[in-house]
Amino acid sequence: MSYSVSAIGPERKYAPVRSFADSADLISGELIGSSASFQAVLKRVKIVAPTDSVVLIQGETGTGKELIARAIHNQSSRQDAPFIKMNCAAIPADLLESELFGHEKGAFTGAVAQTMGRFQLAHKGTLFLDEIGDLPLQLQPKLLRVLQEQEFERLGSGRPIKVDVRVVAATNQELLTMVQDRQFRADLYYRLNVFPICLPPLRDRAGDIPSLVRHFVRKYSQRLQRNIEYIPDEVLGVLERYDWPGNIRELQNVVECAAILCEGDTFSIDETILKREIPQRSNPAVPLVMTIADREREIIEAALAECGGQVAGPKGAAAKLGIPRQTLDSKIANLNIDKWRFKNLTRYVQLLKASSFAPAITAEGTTASF
User: Fold this and answer.
1) Are 314 and 325 a contacting pair, CB within 8 Å?
2) Which CB contacts under 8 angstroms, 24+ apart, belong to 237-240?
3) Sign of CA dihedral 320, 322, 324, 330
């Protein structure tokens, strides 16, 4: 369904785009929202910004963690110094150490010159480490040392370098769960979690959506040279009712797409673009070979149960499955099946009859179908 001015009665009001002005007390032009949950975030930003404490920003993807990090930097005494950012998930693991700490000439193949890392570039300023949960375990002690001692060594050098850097980290992962699963160091977690800031998802601050929409409509109207003046209430209502799994980033993309398609001075949106879904992979964590092995185990155990644990002979499981005894013995050994426990059992008799997979095991010992 597409909403436009023609679908709305004349008594309906339109929200004017250009009457919206960013509130003067907002920290950044795109930190927009008056909901209680978001105002609580802004309050914590204002409290921690003047300090040099480490901040850990947590929130779902697309909630604006980098904007909060920039707001902390811009309100600190370091605002005139560099704001350096690094996405720990976007850099190959074997290059992360060099990216963080730099390297000396000849430290590794291809190191043709001395290079400064992000810590040195952020001296006197702020280093924003995004996706900190993806930092490899082997690098975590080195990051912990910098946080504690404000010094590091370049790759290929034994000389410590002192730095004055304020670190702000961000993640959309549950770091405490990763600590419990031994995927993240506990000492680094507690060193990063000095001042936590948790960003609410957009679905929990739906009242902020109209202000965000007006902001993005104005932004893309100017960028795309569109003359979009009004936003119908019905359009805002549709956007407020959507749950926004991609949060503000998804909202921004939807508004940009709609602005590109907008032909008049009234903002309209095709509701179908809100229903696009990311295809889900079917259980990628389970290897295919394990699925085949589990199916073979089910078939063999069913045959053994029906035959009372007997493998050989005309009434044995091998004959029932239509494969040589040696093949079945080999599979029983490989799958660690205890055939003796089926000697006097009859409770699995119906399992084989109900299974459509019995012909799957061939004489060659492979699965023909599953």
Assistant:
1) no
2) 238/3, 238/269, 238/271, 238/274, 239/209, 239/210, 239/213, 239/269, 240/206, 240/207, 240/209, 240/210
3) negative
Structure token pair of residue 96 = 């992360």
Taking the CA atoms of 179, 182, 185 and 187 in sequence, report the sign of the dihedral they define: positive
Only one residue has tokens 């035959």, namely 307
Kindly report the average pLDDT of the chain as a whole number: 81
As beta bridge partners, residue 270 has 2
What is the C-alpha to C-alpha distance for residues 166 and 333, in angstroms, rounded to an integer?
A: 59
Residues 6+ apart with CB under 8 A from 305: 342, 345, 346, 347, 348, 349, 351, 352
pLDDT in tens, 56-80: 999 999 999 999 999 999 999 999 9
Q: Which of 109, 110, 87 has its CA nearest to residue 99?
A: 87
Contact predicate 107/155, CB 8 Å: yes
Tokens encoding 23:
């509130």
Q: Are 126 and 132 in contact (CB under 8 A)?
A: no
Bridge partners, residue 15, by sequence = 231
Residue 220, C-beta contacts closer than 8 angstroms, at least 6 positions apart: 226, 255, 256, 259, 260
Which residues lie closer than 8 Å to 356 by C-beta, 6 or more apart? Answer: none
Query: Which of these, 342, 338, 331, lies nearest to 292 by C-alpha position?
Result: 331
* Six-digit token string for 272: 């179908």
Mean pLDDT of 196-221: 95
Is the predicted pLDDT of residue 170 greater than 90, yes or no? yes
Distance of CA 8 to the CA centre of its chain: 39
118 pLDDT above the threshold of 70:
yes
- Whether residue 20 contacts residue 267, with contact meaning beta carbons closer than 8 Å, is answered with no
The pTM (predicted TM-score) of the whole model is: 0.68
- Nearest C-alpha neighbor of 250 from the set 87, 30, 69, 62: 62
Tokens representing residue 307 in the block: 């035959």
